[in-house]
Amino acid sequence: MQPSNDIVKLSDEDLVSAIVKTNDTMLFEVLYDRFATLVYNKCYGFAKDGDEAKDLTQDIFLKLFVKLASFKGNSKFSTWLYAFTYNHCVNYVTRNTAKKFEKQSVDYADIENISEDVDDSSDFTNMRVDQLKKALELVSPDEKMILLLKYQDNLTIKEIESVLGVGQSAVKMRIKRAKDKLLTVYNNNLD
Hints:
The protein is mainly alpha-helical. The protein is built from 12 helices and no strands. It is globular and about 55 Å long.
């Protein structure tokens, strides 16, 4: 059964609100259809294996159905879902062996976003992409997450505040520490 045009036209936030009110699985399918590819791609970036990424995507959507009421509308739903997905993937990586940790990767385009950022990131501009990629895989999942939220997904400090539930100064400090750690790892691992 196809969802009605009215449902398909709902904003993400209105759709979430309707799902929370009704627990309607048909409405949740609409949400799933909107975001499954995005979530899968994020999961694949961490798992680097199609089957694992599919499993992670399925886990995220199962968990999402249960946790959807915790979305308070303080940010765009897509921003909240990014953080939800990253947190799940970071937990996955943390729980698993070093072998699985080594499988995580970042696309070339993601690295360009980090190296091209101009707000006090001039140290990144001279990094070789392949070395930066290696360094990004050696920092902690939390450090990788905040760098990707900022530089890959281009979230603002305010959006990151909202999804992480911390203040502006904490976000800025975490980004600074993650960048400093990335620079240290990069400089210590040059061929």
